[in-house]
Every structure is written in structure tokens, then in C-alpha cells.
Amino acid sequence: MTLLKKRLLWCIPVMLVANAARAQLRFASLQDIWAYAEQHNIQLKSAHLNGLIAGINIKQAYGAMLPVVTATGGYTDNIKIQPTLIPEKLLRPNVPDGVFTEATFGRRFIYNGGIFAQFDILNIQDWYAIRRARLNDAISRFNIANVKMGLYQQLADTYYACMLLTEAERLSRENLKTTTAIYELADNKFHEGVISEATINTVLINREKAGKSLDAATQHRQLQLNNLQLLLNVSDSIVLTGNPDEGTLTDAEDSFPTDPAIKLSDARMQLSENELRNARAALAPTLSAIYQYNLQLSTSEFLKSKDGNTMPQQYWGLRLTAPLFAGKTRLYNIQKAKIDYDIQQKEHHHTRLQSDINNKNLLLAYKASLKTYEKAKNILALYQSNDAHATRKFNEGIISLDERLKSYSDLIINQNEYLQNMSDYFIQQYLLKIRQTNFVE
């Protein structure tokens, strides 16, 4: 083998390992996942882009208060100018009345241009439009906070589901090892005629169940990892290296930042109040200053102004516009705005009450789930100890196979309770973490 071939064969596994490393994302904690999602999640990116639109709307509302300047221009080709009848007496006084002659007025080519400017000196609705844009910008920021909070909950739910299934895999792997060892001993006793076929079948069933539980936990964990890929908007495989008990809030605080839902409700209530005032302002007059300049050029030849006639016009003035009657449309708008404002006030009060109660319930549920989970770990350790003792006694021939199977059955039942308590604790823990995070920028 040549030196070049040896180098190529050595480089191939190195390249494969490098590609595998690049195709993996490793996260050591839930906080790492949250930080990564801040930059890559599609829903969160869309919410931020909508926030930029809301900021542009504020500038647009201010721009509506600037003067409006319009330039116009036109060109007319009078291919045939219509004649006009004029009394012949205007030209020759001696001609009797009733005699007319045809005369043509005007020139063939007409060029005109103009500038018109209008500035609203007093227009109350413009100020309410600016406040509406500012409130919508605040609503957009609170919506971003709500989107982020919802995303954090989805990520936490998926992350802890993976952690729970990892623990289920570990327990199932231990169970499979235990049931395999029991089966090997029981199989020998079955062939020796010590135990019945029903007993060996029970041992075999336990081993198959342990294998099935291991396969199910592995499959469901991979499904959760796939869901995590979707939330993070990545195609690379994900590896979680964190400890499920990491970040336990042993001393949970009872202080919470202002709920984004309350801020959002308050902004919507203010927006509704602004719309009511804006509806009332529609009854107020508008005062505007206007200016206009027009210029008309008439010629007999196309694009030749040497012998043309120039006729300028210029004026400025004040214009007062007051609504008098529009079929009571504005009054109906005021009535609808009043009803909407009343609804928003009631919803805002309910949102505050609901947030306060949710905070109390969340804290109580977390503390209860923590105590239960701590006890569940201790109880599982005792069951595992009992099962280890039963294994030793069974191997030494002190207890029967039925007693050994009963000890294993008790362990399996407790494992299910332990996993359920762990799941409850994980849920309450991440809900409390998220609620105690300030999402409003």
C-alpha cells in the first residue's frame, strides 16, 4: 500500500467524525435551549418583524401631520378648436343686431403645471392617530412577550419530556438486566423440574415487558427530540447532556414580575379609550392652511414657447371644515366605542384577578410537587434496595421465585409512580421558572 493510500484511509474516519460533530447540537441545560431559540425560532422572528412594522407605523402617524404638497402637470393638443359665435356688431357697429360671425379662440398646444400645499393647523384626530400607533407598538411588544412565554413553555415541555424519557430508559434498561438474570436462573430450574411452565412464562413476560418499555421510551424520546428540532428550526441532531434535577428551585420566591397578559390587557384598554376619544373628535372642525400656484402656457407650435402666452395663478387661504350631518354615522361610532371601552375595562379587571390567583396556585403546586418528588426518590431508593436484597436471597436460595417476582412487581409499580411524580415536578418547575422571568423588553 502506497503512502498516499494510507493517508487517504486515515483521513476518511477523521472526516466522518468531523462531519458528525458538525451535525450535532449539544445543550447542557434548558437555559441553553431558550437562548438558542431566541435567535432561531420562526414564530419569535415573525413577532419581532411585526414589532418593526409597529415602529414604522408611529413614524407614519407623525408624517401625517406634515404639510401635503402635490405637483401636477398636463399637456393638451387641441387638434381642432371649436369656433364661437360672436355678434358682428362688436366688430362693426353699423351691422344690425342678430348678425353673428364665427371666431376661434385659444391656441392648439396647452401646457399647464401647478403646486398645491395643505397644512392642517388644527386636526385633533391626527394626535389620536399618533397615540393609537404608540399603543399598537406597545401591544406589539407585549405580544412578543406572550409569544416568547409560549415558546419557552413548549421548549420546556419538550425538554423535560426528553429528560423524563431518558430516566425511563435508564430504569427500563436496569429492569431488562434484572429480568434477564431472573430468567436465566428460572430457566435452569424449569428444566430441572423445580418450577412450573406458568412460572417460567411469568418470568419471560416480565423480561419482554421490560424490553418493550425500553423500546417505547427510546422511540418516544426520539420523537420529542424531533419536536425540539422543529421548535429550534434546525435540521442537525440534538444531544441533551443536562441533569434533570439541575436547577431545582428549592427556595422558590413568591415575587413575580408583572404578567405580560396584564400589560397587554392594559394597553388594549388604553387603545379602546383612545378610539372613543377619536370618535368624539370626529365631530370637531378641522382648520387647514392651503396654497396653490398654477401656470399655463399656450403655443401654436409643438414645444415652441417663443410666441406663447404664459398665464400664472397663485393664491393661499384658510379652510375650515366642520361636519354637519352624515346620517348619524359618527354618533353610532361613538356608541360602539363606548361599549368596546366598557368591555376592555371589565376584561382588564378579570385579567389582573386571574393573574394573581394563578401566581398563588402556581407557587402552591410547585412546593407540593417538590415535596412529593423528593419523597418519591427516597421511596424508589428503598424499593431498589429491597429488590437488591431479594435478588441476593433468591440467588442464595433463601427465598422462592414467587417472592422474587413479587419484589420485582412492587418495584415496577413504584417506578411508574416515581416517573409520574417526576413529571408533575418538572411541569410545575418550568412553569414557575417561566412565570418568574420578565419577558417584556
TrEMBL record:
Transmembrane segment boundaries: none
Keyword Signal on entry: yes
Annotated Gene Ontology cellular component terms: cell outer membrane; efflux pump complex
Cited InterPro entries: OMP_efflux, TolC-like
Listed GO MF terms: efflux transmembrane transporter activity; porin activity
Signal peptide coordinates: 1-23
UniProt name for this protein: TolC family protein
